[in-house]
């Protein structure tokens, strides 16, 4: 616990405890351009079923969140309402987009914080909407943004948040998603934008990729990162641009950049990705605090949108 407290520094919002009786996710068709509409519809029906189950169980907290997530205008590529849940929301037309961005969140992401985590734009969904809006403002290209809560994100005050265990699983799932996106849209470059512990997930994905499994990946940016679990960008087995930024008011700057093996896992996340020794391309994040990188009007949001659009030449430096 002492290691976890040293690395993450503060507590953010919690979530409802798992409630038995929630229906299991439905069988979904494979991810292909022609099946996206069906997947969205099936998941919408499943969310409605889960909302009714939460009502029967007297879980009004989860019920209200599911009602919001089940809006008919929302598109979920995958969804699991059990326990802390999982959800992958799509903004834009995934099948026809010219650029695809996957937003990978950090600790304390659950179904109950998916839309609200302290403030709207600190949440995964709120940040994804701000990013999607900014990308459309900066470009006439068709863009899709995925709010990817596709792994078991750790809680802030837990041992898991100081280890790579959850990131190992998340990294494998993120690599699988990349392959699925290639099937749904073969021409659009994909960029991973990875916040906080999500940067460890992205580090694990990158570290395990090959030229074949990384096909379509056009770049990665980490922000608010405690480290990625990688020694340097130069040691990656695949060659993609890697960006790193940290806001001037982000407490994560105080995280110790150490890494050692213990209890069958790795504690700490190693090299500071914003340090020259890591070798990432720096981008300016202004005065952003840890949860403020995707605030509308911020320097960080503009630069992350430009990275997502593949316009690295006009990204402002750190």
Silhouette: globular
Q: Report strand %.
A: 15-25%
What is the helix content?
Answer: 25-40%
Note poorly predicted spans: 1-18
Q: Helix tally?
A: 7
Q: Order of strands side by side in the largest beta sheet? A: 1-2-4-3-5-6-7-10
Average residue pLDDT:
90
Termini distance? 32 Å
Summarize this structure as a short list of keywords or feature phrases:
single chain; 318 residues; alpha/beta; 8-stranded mixed sheet; two-stranded antiparallel ribbon; 7 helices; globular; disordered N terminus
Summarize the structure.
By secondary structure, the protein is an alpha/beta fold. The chain has seven helices and ten strands.
Q: What are the SSEs and their pairings?
A:
Layout: H1 2-8, H2 36-56, H3 60-69, E1 76-80, E2 86-91, E3 99-104, H4 124-138, E4 143-149, H5 165-184, E5 190-195, H6 197-207, E6 217-223, E7 242-245, E8 260-262, E9 265-267, E10 281-282, H7 299-308
């Amino acid at each position: 616990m002492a290691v976890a407290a040293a690395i993450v520094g503060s507590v953010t919002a919690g979530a409802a405890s798992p409630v038995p009786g929630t229906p299991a996710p439905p069988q979904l068709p494979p991810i292909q351009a022609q099946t996206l509409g069906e997947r969205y519809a099936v998941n919408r029906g499943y969310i409605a079923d889960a909302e009714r189950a939460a009502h029967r169980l007297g879980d009004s907290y989860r019920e209200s969140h599911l009602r919001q997530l089940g809006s008919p205008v929302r598109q979920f590529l995958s969804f699991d309402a059990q326990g802390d849940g999982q959800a992958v929301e799509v903004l834009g037309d995934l099948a026809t987009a010219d650029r695809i961005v996957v937003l990978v969140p950090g600790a304390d992401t659950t179904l109950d914080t998916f839309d609200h985590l302290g403030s709207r734009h600190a949440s995964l969904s709120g940040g994804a909407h701000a990013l999607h809006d900014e990308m459309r403002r900066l470009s006439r290209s068709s863009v899709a943004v995925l709010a990817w809560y596709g792994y078991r994100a750790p809680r802030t005050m837990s041992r898991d948040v100081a280890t790579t265990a959850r990131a190992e699983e998340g990294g494998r799932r993120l690599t699988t998603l990349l392959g699925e996106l290639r099937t749904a849209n073969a021409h659009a470059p994909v960029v991973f934008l990875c916040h906080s512990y999500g940067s460890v997930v992205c580090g694990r994905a990158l570290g395990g990729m090959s030229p074949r499994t990384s096909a379509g990946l056009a770049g990665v940016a980490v922000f608010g990162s405690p480290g990625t679990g990688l020694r340097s960008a130069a040691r990656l087995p695949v060659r993609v641009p890697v960006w790193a930024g940290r806001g001037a008011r982000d407490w994560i700057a105080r995280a110790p950049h150490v890494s050692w093996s213990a209890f069958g896992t790795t504690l700490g996340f190693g090299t500071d990705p914003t340090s020259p020794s890591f070798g990432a391309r720096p981008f300016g994040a202004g005065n952003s605090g840890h949860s403020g990188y995707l605030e509308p009007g911020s320097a960080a949001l503009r630069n992350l949108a430009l990275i997502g659009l593949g316009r690295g030449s006009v990204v402002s430096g750190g």
